[in-house]
Design a protein that fits this description.
Elements (H helix, E strand, L loop, with lengths): L2 H6 L7 E13 L2 E10 L18 E16 L2 E14 L5 E3 L13 H15 L1
Protein name: Zinc-finger of transposase IS204/IS1001/IS1096/IS1165
Organism: Granulicatella balaenopterae
GO molecular function: zinc ion binding
Length: 127
């Protein structure tokens, strides 16, 4: 993983690992785009559902889930992050939850930085 790629894409979450060898230039929705690939995983402190602390392997890894996140454009091209998120299972309540990152809100596929940029653009147009 390259630290410069994280800076280039403005990814500051230490739980996100980028795979530089998989970063590619592809056509998405008829436009030339940059697609970076990465993974987010960590050891959860507690279950999101029941609050059970992660002691004595009460929360275990249980597969992954993939999502494509829209990032700010780079070099005039649309930029996406194909992020593999770790899934977890709580042995106490038998429910599942997915690793989260501060790049994007829960259940959303548009990066927070994109939302802020759009809001800034709208604010500038009204002033």
């Amino acid at each position: 993983m390259s630290h410069s790629t994280q800076i280039f894409l403005q990814i500051k979450d230490p739980n996100v690992t980028l795979y530089d060898e998989l970063t590619e230039e592809v056509v998405v929705k008829g436009k030339k785009s940059i697609v970076a690939h990465g993974k987010v995983t960590y050891k959860p402190k507690a279950c999101e559902h029941c609050g059970c602390k992660n002691e004595h392997f009460s929360i275990v890894k249980h597969g992954t889930r993939s999502s494509t996140i829209t990032l700010l454009p780079c070099s005039g091209m649309d930029t996406y992050l194909k992020l593999i998120k770790q899934r977890f299972k709580c042995k106490h309540c038998k429910k599942f939850f997915t690793a989260e990152t501060d790049i994007v809100d829960k259940n959303c596929f548009i990066a927070k930085s994109v939302k802020l940029h759009v809001a800034d653009q709208l604010f500038d147009e009204f002033t």
